[in-house]
Write a structure and sequence with these properties.
The chain has 4 helices and 7 strands. The chain has 154 residues and is α+β, with helices and mostly antiparallel strands.
């Protein structure tokens, strides 16, 4: 059976190290409301938006220029029946050099179409990865909090 975890990828001109540095600048592309360290192996950080969504991520893998993995140990999504759908899932960023480009593959391992939040969550990740993180990598400026500011998820 085909892997159904949510995944998205893109390629940029920047180096693998620049891509990893941007990923680790979570406040620069996902949310300015992050508490904790986002760039050290073993560190935990928390994301929250009002009573709508909160989650705790632990950095379980950090390979310079190659890979970043966050394990979601505690999450509460108040917009679905099973508010703990994200618990035990992993966020994986894989970085590879292909010719003169750097490819970033983002996978939310465990975010599958059978999850009630799949539509909203995959749409949000699509924006935050493909638009905001890509912009942070290529221009130095991301768009954190934008889906909440625009009311798309509020």
């Amino acid at each position: 059976m085909k892997n159904q975890n949510y995944s998205i990828s893109f390629a940029v001109d920047q180096s693998p190290e620049q891509v990893v540095n941007a990923i680790n600048n979570v406040r620069g592309w996902w949310s300015e409301e992050i508490d904790g360290s986002t760039d050290k192996l073993g560190a935990e950080f928390k994301f929250h938006y009002k009573d709508f969504h909160r989650s705790t991520q632990k950095i379980t893998e950090l390979v310079p220029g190659k890979k970043v993995v966050w394990h979601i140990s505690d999450a509460r999504l108040n917009f679905v029946k099973n508010k703990t759908e994200w618990n035990g899932t992993d966020i994986v960023f894989e970085i590879t050099k292909k010719d003169d480009k750097t490819e970033l593959r983002f996978t939310h391992v465990g975010l599958v179409p059978t999850f009630e939040c799949y539509g909203d969550c995959s749409g949000a990740w699509g924006f935050y990865i493909n638009d905001s993180l890509r912009s942070l990598i290529t221009t130095g400026k991301g768009q954190p909090n934008q889906l909440f500011v625009k009311g798309a998820l509020a």
